[in-house]
């Protein structure tokens, strides 16, 4: 039975009085304004692990059946529901694999959850700095050659962690990279948070576990339409990481009270995506974006390469993208996901209909009067800072917040991120460099 049918059955037939958590007692108590904003139904679907509803920490009933169905849909050995986002899946994958002082090869454009995972595991990062694309102001995907070099220099590394697609939608060379990690007999963990639609459409890269990744995580809330922060973790068929270790790691960090409304949203989202309607919706979205991109005036461009077309990365050749964003926000009532000096990112997904897309492209085509970017106006030197101590040691050290201009050469105790391009400027344990002191006012440093 599906979660949806079980919830309906409980509401319509069983009509039990629950003397369990949650204490709103099946929606008996709902503050008036919550009721107005959220409605009553979400409370009526909000249970704990009552009879018939299973336990996400050790699923044996209805949730186990759902996960088995997901494994079939995703061709995974095991798929896990994450009710705390891809962030929790990335940390769990790291906890399942890495021990204190283990070396791990990590692409520098990783999400902050990966740097948090470094603190929690005590692992030592070996960074791969992706190539920067100055025309678009973004980092490219990770090449197989860069992973090969890192593995040659660090044959004792215990795992490789990459983001593919990136926040901006660029893919890494996962098929070749997974051959390298298989040769080295270490797991490949892929942050596929932005790739939840990949299994349901014709993209130029396959989903990470089809490419041979051991574990991937996908945020269903980012592009696939589920409630925030619903996500999935997939264990590949030939994974070096066991599903048991992943479950244990998830149990270490997650709530013992996963949200049933969120899990219902996951169930229904995946079922929709896996239906013919889902595939049609993904393909219609891709086709419309391609069609509209082709109609843009000369010099107006949407990124197209080894990337996910549902991430609309737009620029007007040589023009200041911050000014474009200002026009969109203030005059056109359109908000973008992010802007750097050269380009703007518009995230689309299953809920983006043709009306929205056409409106966006119509407005973009009509933008005029933007000034040109001056040489080096938005260029930053993102070269790797020097590492003094492990992220874990820096995080737990005695520390104090000091003005950034006085911090150069001191050991950072916190991760400092700069969006865009969403790359850690510093992770805990690295020496504060001039770039960090320019971008931030105060930095927490090790005493
Ligand atoms: C590249 C990347 N990875 C992971 C995450 C974390 O995903 P979630 O919000 O589902 O925890 C994000 C969120 O912004 C992200 O951009």
> Which regions contain 5 or more consecutive residues with pLDDT less than 50?
none
Please give the CATH architecture of the largest domain: 3-Layer(aba) Sandwich
Q: How far is the N terminus from the C terminus? A: 57 Å
Helix/strand structural class = alpha/beta
User: Which ligands are bound?
Assistant: pyridoxal-5'-phosphate
For the record, the CATH class of the largest domain is Alpha Beta
Q: What is the count of distinct domains?
A: 4
Quote the CATH topology of the largest domain: Aspartate Aminotransferase, domain 2
Oligomer status: single chain
**Sequence of strands across the biggest β-sheet:** 1-9-8-7-6-2-3
Q: How is the topology of this model organized?
A:
Blueprint lengths: L2 H12 L17 H7 L2 H4 L17 H13 L3 E5 L2 H13 L5 E5 L4 H10 L2 E5 L3 E2 L4 E2 L4 H10 L6 E4 L10 H11 L3 E4 L23 E5 H4 L7 E5 L7 H11 L6 H14 L2 H19 L5 E3 L8 E6 L4 H11 L6 E2 L4 E4 L6 H12 L25 H6 L2 E5 L12 E3 L4 E4 L7 H6 L2 E5 L1
Parallel strand pairs: 2-3, 2-6, 6-7, 7-8
Antiparallel strand pairs: 1-9, 4-5, 8-9, 10-11, 11-13, 12-13, 14-17, 15-16
Helix pairs in contact: 5-6, 5-10, 7-8, 12-14
The structure holds pyridoxal-5'-phosphate.
Compact description:
This protein has 447 residues and is of the alpha/beta class.
Explain how this protein is built.
By secondary structure, the chain is α/β, with parallel strands linked by helices. It folds into four domains: 1-52, no CATH class; 54-273, Aspartate Aminotransferase, domain 2; 277-365, Aspartate Aminotransferase, domain 1 (Alpha-Beta Complex); 391-446, Orn/Lys/Arg decarboxylase, C-terminal domain (Ornithine Decarboxylase, Chain A, domain 4, Alpha-Beta Complex). Helix content is 36%, strand content 15%. It has 16 helices and 17 strands. It has helices at 3-14, 32-38, 41-44, 62-74, 85-97, 112-121, 144-153, 174-184, 220-223, 243-253, 260-273, 276-294, 321-331, 354-365, 391-396, 434-439; strands at 78-82, 103-107, 124-128, 132-133, 138-139, 160-163, 188-191, 215-219, 231-235, 300-302, 311-316, 338-339, 344-347, 399-403, 416-418, 423-426, 442-446. The strands form five sheets. Strands 1-9-8-7-6-2-3 form a seven-stranded mixed β-sheet, sandwiched between helices. Strand 2, helix 6 (112-121) and strand 3 (124-128) form a beta-alpha-beta unit. Helix 5 (85-97) runs parallel beside helix 6, helix 7 runs parallel beside helix 8 and helix 12 (276-294) packs parallel to helix 14. The model has no long low-confidence stretch (mean pLDDT 95). Pyridoxal-5'-phosphate binds at residues 85-87, 111, 113, 163, 167, 191, 193-194, 219, 229, 231.
């Amino acid at each position: 039975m599906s979660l949806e049918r079980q919830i309906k059955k409980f509401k319509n037939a069983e009509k039990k009085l629950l003397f369990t958590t949650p204490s709103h007692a099946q929606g008996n108590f709902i503050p008036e304004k919550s009721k107005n904003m959220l409605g009553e139904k979400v409370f009526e679907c909000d249970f704990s692990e009552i009879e018939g509803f299973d336990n996400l920490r050790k699923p044996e009933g209805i949730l186990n059946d759902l996960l088995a169905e997901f494994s079939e849909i995703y061709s995974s050995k095991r798929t896990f529901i994450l009710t705390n986002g891809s962030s929790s899946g990335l940390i769990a994958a790291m906890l399942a694999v890495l021990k204190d002082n283990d070396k791990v090869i990590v692409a520098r454009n990783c999400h902050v959850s990966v740097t948090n995972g470094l603190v929690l595991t005590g692992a030592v990062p070996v960074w791969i700095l992706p190539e920067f694309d100055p025309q678009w102001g973004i980092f490219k995907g990770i090449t197989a050659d860069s992973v090969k070099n890192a593995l040659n220099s660090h044959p004792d590394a215990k795992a490789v962690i990459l983001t593919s697609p990136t926040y901006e939608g660029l893919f890494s060379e996962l098929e070749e990279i997974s051959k390298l990690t298989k040769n080295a007999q270490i797991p490949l963990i892929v942050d596929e948070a932005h790739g939840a639609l990949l299994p349901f459409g014709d993209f130029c890269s396959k989903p990470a576990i089809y490419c041979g990744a051991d574990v991937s995580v996908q945020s269903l809330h980012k592009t696939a339409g589920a409630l925030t922060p619903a996500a999935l973790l997939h264990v590949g068929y030939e994974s070096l990481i066991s599903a048991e270790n992943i479950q244990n790691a998830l149990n270490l960090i997650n709530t013992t009270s996963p949200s049933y409304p969120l899990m219902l949203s996951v169930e229904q989202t995946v079922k929709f995506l896996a239906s013919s309607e889902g595939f049609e919706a993904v393909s219609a979205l891709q086709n419309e974006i391609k069609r509209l991109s082709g109609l843009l005036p000369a010099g107006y461009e949407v990124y197209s390469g080894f990337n996910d077309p549902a991430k609309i990365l737009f620029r007007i050749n040589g023009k200041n993208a911050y000014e474009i964003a200002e026009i969109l926000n203030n005059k056109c009532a359109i908000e973008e996901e992010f802007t750097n000096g050269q380009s703007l990112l518009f995230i689309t997904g299953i809920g983006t209909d043709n009306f929205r897309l056409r409106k966006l492209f119509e407005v973009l085509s009509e933008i005029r009067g933007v000034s040109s970017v001056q040489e080096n106006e938005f260029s930053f030197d993102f070269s790797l800072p020097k590492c003094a101590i492990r992220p874990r040691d820096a995080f737990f050290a005695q520390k104090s917040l000091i003005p950034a201009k006085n911090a150069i050469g001191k050991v950072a105790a916190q991760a400092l991120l700069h969006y865009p391009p969403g790359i850690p400027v510093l992770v805990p344990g690295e020496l504060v460099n001039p770039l960090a002191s320019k971008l931030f006012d105060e930095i927490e440093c090790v005493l």
